[in-house]
Structure formats: structure tokens, C-alpha cells
Write a structure and sequence with these properties.
The structure is a homodimer. Chain A has 7 helices and 11 strands. By secondary structure, the first copy, chain A, is α/β, with parallel strands linked by helices.
């Protein structure tokens, strides 16, 4: 056993290019969100695929729906006003990750509990809505309308809450963040604190890399898993940016002997994360 | 490397019970079909889940759409008349497995080539439609309207075709069959020539079983992977049939430390097959 390793992923902003309708796009984004939650992904990096020039609308849609699905249901109404882009996202089944806490009686909330909330300003005072009815006094600095992770500092009826960082929540999975990257190589350059695993049909089996990867992960404890687009593999994308995929040590094919000509991004995403989770935790 | 191992799967006929609309049901069946094709599943056993009593219509729908998706596109019109149940199946992306061959000029078809066809009777003679225009003389016995795998015995313009078995096609993946089972334990009793891998959240890591499983697979070379329903795990299903899941040696949890409360069947299906494929082929 390696012990805990943080997993982040990189996907191209062109990954909706083979979908036509809002419904199909929503579904594909939701499959990415669900697989990310199942395998406790920390950050989803959305890198610009220079070859496809994804519509700005798609890029916006991806970030909107990923953020929406990662938000506990009790905060969605407050944080996401009615928008046509969310028409199909609202009817998706909930992800049910640990930070998507269920409703409980506010009287039973205990000191030390952590919940996701949204900051609300009433006159000159700040409160936080944690989805349990009454607003709770917020101690700290934050703009009204921001999503925050809070820890309760006292119990009912004198509830007070303070902001904590995602890093302070170590005992359970607390959702993912979505970050932008201008290009794939810019992202990879910045990620020198992570071991980079590139997925590519022409890659080698992960098995061949297990000894050297495990050795590196014992020190770094962070993985970034990189996916290509429906139209171009990671090798082509890097080449078009003037870089060479073979300068990275771990270029892997996760689906040896695949029975179909193509594996769709959402399938490769879930299958790859399942294999990496299996490798890391056994 | 273990060398080739045949993979079959068992899924409950209740697996659509958490879907309401024909569109969502179609999509879920299609995800099972696609994952089965990617990981070269030979047979999908659809076992009756006595706890849910799946609607007969659902059972029929599953078999219809799985069969439809496994059929090469050029034969679909002939084998599947227009039916309301196929409304959404027709617009799904093709699976593109090796037996879903693309169109080619009939003059370029060579002796020895294998294609999927459908038997057609014209007067008292049998022909086969292999999707390339003219019918080809069929040598053998088969009912008109049957789907058959044929090998071409000569070349253009004197094309003749003979029926071959799926077992004769060893060099490439040739799609899956769908079979019924009255209950899970009846199926497992019949499958003594296969190593049975049961998926269960409370199971152990597959890693723990790898040495003993590999030893057995070197002899048997066949795996049956068993999935539970959206409502009940394989343990509950077997218990309700009067049997004990722990009488089977390989009860595995494929998603250690999962970040969500639930993993949906179609996700567990793809993720599990990805891990087993990785284990078998590296």
C-alpha cells in the first residue's frame, strides 16, 4: 500500500466536440463529474485544445455544470439562478459525496461539524446559509454569495461558523475544484510537484511502470492524469504545441486489446481512474 | 501474462429499475453494450432478480436493444423492423467492433473473409445478405431471417458463403451473445467451467486474490463477472434465493475508498471490466 495519493485530472475543453445537443453535453459533463467524485479527484484542469478551438459557450457550460454538480443540493438554488443551460443538470441524480450532506435538525448540529455554505450579508453583518433553515453567524472575511467550507464553533442555539480551507478537511472526500489552463504544455510545466500519467492508445501498460511510479509517488504523493480529446490523442496535442509526448516518463494505454475501434472520453475517464484507484489502493 | 481468457458477465434483469424514461433506459443499456464490446465480453447473462420482478417489458427491451447494438449497422434495417422501443437506439453512436465491418466494393471481397449476414430465401434457394449489395449464394441450412456468421468460399463474381460458428472466429472480437437465466444461483451452478468473480461493496480487493485466481485461470481460461442490482447487492440476492455469497471464493470490491455513497451499475460495470482487463493483460 502506497498510502494516500492525491489525484487530479486534465481534460481538453474540446471534449464536447462530438456532442450536438444540450442534453447530451450535460450528460457527458455529468459522467465526468460522477467519475471524479467516485475516485476522489481533487482538481479538474480544463486545458485549451488549440486544434479544435472549443466554442466559448462549451467551455462555460463545462465549468458551470461541473460546479453545479459539485455543489450540495441545498445550496444550488441560492448559488445558481435559473439558467437555460442548467435545464438538464437539475434532473440528474445527486452525486452523494460526503460534502453533500443531508438535511438534519439544526438542533442536532454539533460543534466541530463541517458543512458547505454560502455567505449572506444582512445589513452590515455576515451570515452563512448551511441549508438547515436559520442563517448562522459567520466569523471571518468573505464576499456575500461565495461558497465556503465552514466549521461550526459552537452548538445550538448560539451557532457560529468559521471558514476553513479544503486542505483542513482530510478525513473525507470534499469534492473537486475546476481550474483553467491555457494549453496542455503550460499546465504540465506548472505541475512539477505531481507525477504525470499520460493516457494514449499507443502507450505502454501501466504495469510496466508500477515499480518506478510507486517509488516516485512515495515522495510526491500527487498524480495528474492527462486525457486527450475525441479527435486528437495527447501526443498530437503536444506536438501541435511544439512538444514531445515521449519526454514524459509515464505514457500508458489503459485498455490493452480493446474490442472497439474507439473508446469515448467519458469511458476512458472512468475506466482509467478505476484502474489507477485499484493500483493505488491494493 | 495469462494469455487469452474469455470474459462473460451476469447482470440482473432489474437493472433498469432506477430509470423512468425510454430514453434513459436505452442509454443505460447502451452503456452496458459499449463496455461489453470494449472489453470483449462473450456472453451477457441476464438473470432474473426475484426481489424486484422486473417488468417483462424491461426484460424484452434489454434483449432487444443489446441485440440491436451488437448487430452491424448494415443488417439492422432487415433484422429490426421499425419499433417504438428502438426510437432512441437508432441515434446512438455505432460501437465499431470488428464484426461491424464497413462498406466495401463487393468486387474487392476476398475468399476467406468473414462477415455477419442475414439469411434470405428467394424461391427455393437460400442467399445471404452481407450488406454489400447483391445477395450471395448461401451453402448450408438456416431459417430465412436468421443472423449468421459466414465465411466466403470464393471470390467475385462467383461468391458463395458458408456458415461458421462464433468459436471459429478466434483472431478478433466478434460481439456478444445474450442469454437468460432463471435465477442467479441456477446460473452459477451451471457455470462450473468458469471462475466466478462476484462484485460486492463489502468484498476484498481483487489484488488479494490475484495469485490464486491466476493459477485457476491458467486451467479454466474463462471468467464470469457477477453484478448486483441498483437496489440489492449480490449477497442479498443470493440470500433471498437460499444461498450464501461466501461459498464463492472470489468476492471482490473493485472500488476501494469510493468517494460517493453509491456507484451506479453502468459505472461499476465499465470500471470493473477495465480493472479485470488490466489484470488479465499485463
Amino acid at each position: 500500500m502506497l498510502g494516500p495519493v492525491n489525484i487530479s485530472v486534465a481534460i481538453p475543453d474540446s471534449f464536447l466536440s462530438d456532442e450536438q445537443t444540450l442534453r447530451d453535453k450535460t450528460l457527458k459533463i455529468s459522467q465526468i463529474a460522477r467519475a471524479s467524485s467516485i475516485f476522489r479527484v481533487k482538481t479538474i484542469y480544463l486545458y485549451q485544445d488549440g486544434g479544435i478551438h472549443a466554442a466559448k459557450a462549451d467551455r462555460r457550460l463545462i465549468k458551470l455544470i461541473l460546479g453545479y454538480l459539485d455543489t450540495p443540493q441545498y445550496l444550488r438554488k441560492g448559488l445558481f439562478p435559473q439558467m437555460p443551460e442548467l435545464r438538464y443538470a437539475g434532473i440528474l441524480p445527486p452525486i452523494r459525496a460526503p460534502h453533500h450532506k443531508e438535511w438534519q435538525d439544526i438542533k442536532s448540529v454539533r460543534e466541530g461539524e463541517v458543512r458547505v455554505g454560502v455567505v449572506v450579508q444582512v445589513k452590515d453583518k455576515l451570515y452563512v446559509d448551511i441549508g438547515l433553515g436559520p442563517l448562522i453567524r459567520f466569523e471571518g472575511v468573505a464576499a456575500a454569495g461565495t461558497k465556503v467550507n465552514v466549521k461550526l464553533k459552537s452548538s445550538f442555539p448560539n451557532l457560529r461558523a468559521e471558514k476553513i480551507n479544503q486542505q483542513d478537511i482530510k478525513s473525507s472526500y470534499w469534492g473537486f475544484e475546476v481550474n483553467d489552463a491555457k494549453s496542455l504544455h503550460t499546465l504540465l510545466d506548472q505541475m512539477s510537484d505531481m507525477e504525470i500519467i499520460i493516457t494514449l492508445r499507443e502507450g505502454e501498460s501501466l504495469k510496466n511502470f508500477e515499480p518506478s511510479l510507486s517509488q516516485k509517488l512515495r515522495v510526491k504523493r500527487k498524480i495528474l492524469v492527462v486525457f486527450g480529446s475525441p479527435k486528437r490523442g495527447v501526443d498530437e496535442i503536444l506536438t501541435s504545441e511544439g512538444f514531445d509526448v515521449h519526454s514524459y516518463p509515464f505514457v500508458t494505454n489503459m485498455f490493452p486489446f480493446q474490442g472497439t475501434q474507439t473508446v469515448r472520453l467519458e469511458e476512458a475517464f472512468l475506466g482509467t481512474l478505476a484502474i489507477i484507484n485499484y493500483y493505488l489502493n491494493s
